[in-house]
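Dear Dr. H.,

I hope your travels went smoothly. While you were away I took the liberty of generating a structure for the chain from your last submission, since the lab meeting agenda had it listed for discussion. I wanted you to have the full record in hand beforehand rather than looking at slides cold. The sequence, exactly as received, is reproduced here:
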Amino acid sequence: MNRFMKSINRVSLIQQIIIGMIIGILTALYIPDIANELSLLGVLFVGALKGIAPILVFFLVIAAISKHRSGQKTGMGSVITLYLLGTFLSAVLAVLVSWFFPTTLHLAASAADAAPPQGIAEVMKTLLKNIVDNPVKALMSANYIGILGWALIIGGALRHAPMNTKEVMESISQAIT
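The corresponding predicted structure, in token form, is as follows:
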């Protein structure tokens, strides 16, 4: 078993996910009865990701902010460029696919008590309230704006902490990853 786990750990997580998807697709195509039973594995995987993602984001941001030094090259320009390019290309692809494969969407009646924001001021007020949400509540409800807000505040405060404390945050983020 130990040898099996070592061979799995040599493959990156992204490659493991792709291999799992390929196995799942092939199983669904050729052995649908077994694929139906194995669908529980996908449900468990997605549930685990949803469960760990808020905590992971929280500690990764704290560790990154606390260990950053002034003047240190971050590479954020490349990250932002790739993010904007990826978002734009995915939007273009979505529009093209919707033209080639048009669908009709039947919406249920909306809730009577749900009302859209009445202006930018209301949106900003809600955003600010979400940023300063209780950090435990933000983690429990996956309020990523609140998680990022508190992680930035705590990470900024820890920039002046001893290196041991910063290394603890780094170790926690690596353990969760």
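Two observations you may find useful: The two ends are 22 Å apart (CA to CA). Residues 31-99+120-176 form one domain.

With kind regards,
E. W.
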